[in-house]
Recover the amino acids of this structure.
């Protein structure tokens, strides 16, 4: 099962990726998490990416395509994978197609910008696992601590309102055209396209996805 989760920053892709990963036993490939891991390791690529990410812009297609190519060639992707945050531009989607990587489902998370800005202000993350919480809508069992490891949760550097608004602008300009791109592919029978109301509560979105994917 190969799935693309498509949607604006904060639309809930990472939250549902954790749910789908546990339910279907396929890995989550989050380009954002991969970049944040490179930043933590202090690699040259990570340091260059940090400046771009903190400014709310997209990292170059070349770097991202290289990262994903390498990742999906690993053995744990043999049965499928969940792409979370990739592709984000038409060249990234074209690169995937040109390399013969087809996907079974493209799932669009639709959430208005104002809801997203509010969500991001309450987001807390566990960097080591990629688990995501919200202080009100999806709180951890113990405030400020990850449910499974008990480690501290953190606020992402790019979750400041000003940066979130910039990221939303970049999304509308560079990523939203992928909606038409994949609807087109679905019409040609190359994938299945699904639209999802991402303003529903977390559990309702998970139930929708379970019903959709079986
Ligand atoms: P990335 O890490 O991919 O961030 P993003 O796409 O901006 O998405 P997020 O992880 O911020 O949001 P999400 O949809 O996963 O929402 P979440 O589940 O956390 O990218 C970061 C940066 O890396 C980019 O800006 C770019 O610079 C670079 N980058 C990454 N990929 C790239 C690529 N392919 N090309 C170029 N550059 C790239 O939910 C958000 C909050 O809402 C949480 O608090 C959550 O608990 C809460 N929530 C979730 N669902 C619900 C719900 N249904 N109801 C209420 N609250 C909810």
């Amino acid at each position: 099962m190969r799935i693309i989760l498509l949607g604006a920053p904060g639309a809930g892709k990472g939250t549902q990726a954790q749910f789908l990963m546990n339910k279907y036993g396929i890995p989550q490939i989050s380009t954002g998490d991969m970049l944040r891991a490179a930043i933590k390791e202090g690699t040259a690529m990570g340091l260059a990416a940090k400046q771009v990410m903190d400014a709310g812009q997209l990292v170059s297609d070349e770097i991202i395509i290289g990262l994903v190519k390498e990742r999906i060639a690993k053995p744990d992707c043999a049965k499928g994978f969940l792409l979370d945050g990739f592709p984000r531009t038409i060249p990234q989607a074209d690169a995937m197609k040109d390399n013969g990587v087809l996907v079974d489902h493209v799932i669009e998370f639709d959430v208005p910008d104002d809801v997203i800005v509010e969500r991001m202000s309450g987001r807390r993350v566990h960097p080591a696992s990629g688990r995501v919480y919200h202080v009100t809508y999806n709180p951890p069992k113990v405030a400020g601590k990850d449910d499974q490891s008990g480690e501290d949760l953190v606020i992402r550097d790019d979750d400041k309102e000003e940066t979130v608004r910039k990221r939303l602008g970049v999304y509308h300009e560079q990523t939203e055209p992928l909606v038409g791109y994949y609807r087109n592919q679905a019409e040609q029978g190359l994938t299945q396209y699904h639209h999802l109301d991402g303003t529903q509560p977390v559990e309702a979105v998970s139930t929708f996805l379970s019903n959709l994917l079986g």
Q: What stands out?
A: Residues 137 and 201 are 8 Å apart (CA to CA). The first strand starts at residue 2 and ends at 7. The chain has a mean pLDDT of 95.
